[in-house]
Amino acid sequence: MGRSAIIIGKGPSILRTTSEYVSSFDDAIIVNRPVWDGYENHIPRKADIQYRNNSTEDFSEEEMIELGLRKVVSIAQVDEQLSEQAHHGIIEVEYPPFQRGPNNSITLNYKDISFSPSGGVLAFHHIVESGEYDKISVVGLDLLMVGKRAYYFEPEEMQANIKYLLHNGTYNREGFLRTEKSFHSEEYAITYMAGVIGEKSDILFDITTDNEKLIDLVKDFSNITVL
Questions:
Q1: What's the whole-model pTM score?
Q2: How far apart are CA 159 and CA 161, in angstroms?
Q3: What would the pLDDT profile of 70-103 be if each residue is shown by its tens digit?
Q4: Do 175 and 167 form a contact (C-beta atoms < 8 A)?
């Protein structure tokens, strides 16, 4: 029996999962820094692997130990090193050989498309391609839909360094709705994720997402359970 992993995003569909379900997987994988306070019924304070860049709020050494964090995977720009505070020298750091895009950003190439993936999609890509898991669950990857709620938490609970997104008009504070398209193309992310899930018939997938376009493309695959 192979290993199982759950990738935890920040979309509103997080509120449809439970801590018991998350804890049933061998590896809990977080993208940047979740908000746990008040949401412990949905996501336990457990993280085996973190995908992050240098703008992510750092964990203290004590927090890393409390979470059980054993590895940090860089999704910073290509060739950029993570700061010492990202790992405190106490856990493994991985720099995957991601494809270089404009201005050293990371790009994903899939068939005839090329796009800048969100951190969650990049984590999905890296975990799927690792070959380490025969069951992968994705929760809270709602793919930044325009006109839909952005995150499972409230605006005042946002990480401090991204609160500018409220002020520049990306999100409206009333209802925390996304007001404009993300440069992390929703359309290409859907095409990529659906294509990969269909191709990786040896992996069992669970998916909890509010993105109905993605659900429509994958719901009939024999290797997926839509929760």
A1: 0.93
A2: 6
A3: 999 999 999 999 999 999 999 999 999 999 999 9
A4: no
